[in-house]
Design brief:
With 433 residues, the protein is α+β, with helices and mostly antiparallel strands. It is built from ten helices and 20 strands. The radius of gyration is 24 Å and the shape is globular. The mean pLDDT is 89.
């Protein structure tokens, strides 16, 4: 499971910022439903991020995506344009001298790890950079145990060298790989490619189980869902059920020999009685929202089925807020999410903030999302993005937000920040007189 993601000096993020998914102990609501425990750490099953346009929400997810790509392929120079990391915060003069830093904290196979690295640009070419620090720790009984640590050291005569210290007890097969690691390549990637067990295990988890996608530019998603519809009977049944339960009117889906997908709807007589079914070409007849739901369906169900982590940029675009609630409930429910999958997404609609359900524990209706599942991103007076959760937020009075507060109304009124404050957007039209 994903516990934390941190970044520093990347795009709109200047100072170190973190998205924490570990459950806050003082947050008691929906503990059994919305959280899970892995490797001794209680983690939320879902998180939603709000913020104004250009606040940095997409940049946060972009950093995750690029960190993943770099961890998997840093040795492959030909793939570098796909995971370009050399994009520091450019609104301060020191941005090119401060390292860009990325760190991820995860649990894998019942073990708890912290991995990260820092890089600096060697010039102003964004693809020309050097790793100045890299680390992998395993957390055992709340103590950080080093697997390896790397840093750039400069000798008295000004010569720069990368020093990699590998713990022989935890990573015996990592010894000897230090000399195979170039200054612009991650030691982690080298060790994983040479089948060092710990790095290889983490690398496979990152490759398969951490997926960052855009719900607006859904490249590859329709093909994945269609392949599941064709080749996996169990997944096909779940996809059809998801589409039908969304009240789209679609009763069935098939893929023809020509690869064209067809949707089926009930057909009625003049009295309103169902007399049969008729079919349509899915991409021509169905709404953009229905098409988007299908595109996402394979990935959503695969994530739930296999206990993966799914990060979605702009999930609520083209989807009704009640439908987004339904998708969220699939993750915040032990019956539909028995393998502790996680869903993280950003959104614009405040509907989820106002979503309340009766709590037997509290004896009243309270917000369906815990306060440690709600995050905001906003820019400070230097245009640098900041990340904070609702449970961290303090009002001017110094009091924290209660779990029975009207989060949606407070958000729209600007109490938590993270909303736009547009100046006059249209010039005043001069009068005739």
């Amino acid at each position: 499971m994903l516990i934390r993601f941190s970044l520093e000096n990347f795009r709109s993020f200047k100072d170190r910022q973190s998205l924490y998914l570990n459950a806050v102990k003082t947050c008691k609501e929906w503990n059994e439903e919305n959280t899970a425990v892995d490797a001794g750490v209680r983690v939320v099953r879902s998180a939603i991020i709000y913020g104004a346009n250009a606040s940095g929400k997409t940049n946060l997810f972009m950093a995750m995506q690029r960190m993943k790509a770099f961890m998997l392929s840093s040795v492959d120079i030909d793939k570098r344009p796909n995971f370009l990391l050399g994009e520091p915060f450019l609104l301060t003069v020191s941005s090119f001298t401060v390292p860009e830093t990325f760190e991820i904290e995860i649990t894998v196979n019942g073990r708890h790890f912290v991995y990260g690295f820092s890089l600096v640009l060697k010039g102003r070419l964004f693809e020309d950079y050097e790793i100045v620090k890299e680390w992998l720790f395993e957390v055992i009984k709340n103590k950080m145990r080093p697997c390896f640590f790397r840093e750039r050291r400069i000798s008295d005569n000004g010569i720069s060298s990368n020093v990699i210290d590998v713990d022989e007890k935890r990573m015996p097969q990592g010894k000897g790989l230090e000399q195979r690691t170039r200054p612009d390549v991650l030691f982690f990637t080298v060790a994983a490619q040479f089948a060092e067990p710990t790095c290889q295990m983490i690398s496979e988890y990152i490759r398969i189980s951490l997926n960052v996608i855009s719900a607006v530019n859904r490249q590859g998603l329709p093909e994945f869902s269609k392949s599941k519809l064709l080749l996996d009977a169990e997944m096909a049944s779940r996809i059809k059920k998801l589409i039908a339960e969304a009240d789209t009117g679609v009763k069935d889906l098939t893929v023809g020999d020509n690869g064209m997908m067809m949707s089926f709807h009930d057909q009625y007589d003049d009295a309103g009685t169902i007399v049969g079914r008729t079919n349509f070409v899915f991409t021509f007849a169905e709404s953009l929202g229905t098409q988007k739901l299908f595109d996402l369906s394979g990935t959503l169900i695969d994530t739930l089925h296999n206990g993966r982590v799914l990060v979605i940029d702009e999930l609520d675009a083209q989807l009704h807020p009640i439908l987004v609630r339904h998708l969220l409930e699939l993750f915040n429910d032990t019956k539909t999410n028995p393998n502790n999958a996680q869903l993280i997404f950003n959104a614009q609609s405040p509907d989820l903030l106002g979503y309340k359900v009766y709590s037997e524990v509290k004896g009243k209706k309270i917000a369906r999302l815990r306060r440690d599942q709600i995050y905001f991103v906003e820019k400070d007076n230097q245009e640098a993005s900041k990340v904070f959760s609702l449970i961290e937020f303090k009002k001017d009075s110094g009091l924290r937000t209660r779990n029975d507060a009207s989060y949606d109304k407070d958000y729209l009124s600007g109490v938590y920040g993270g909303i736009p404050f547009p100046r006059e957007m249209v010039a005043e039209v001069p009068g005739n007189g």
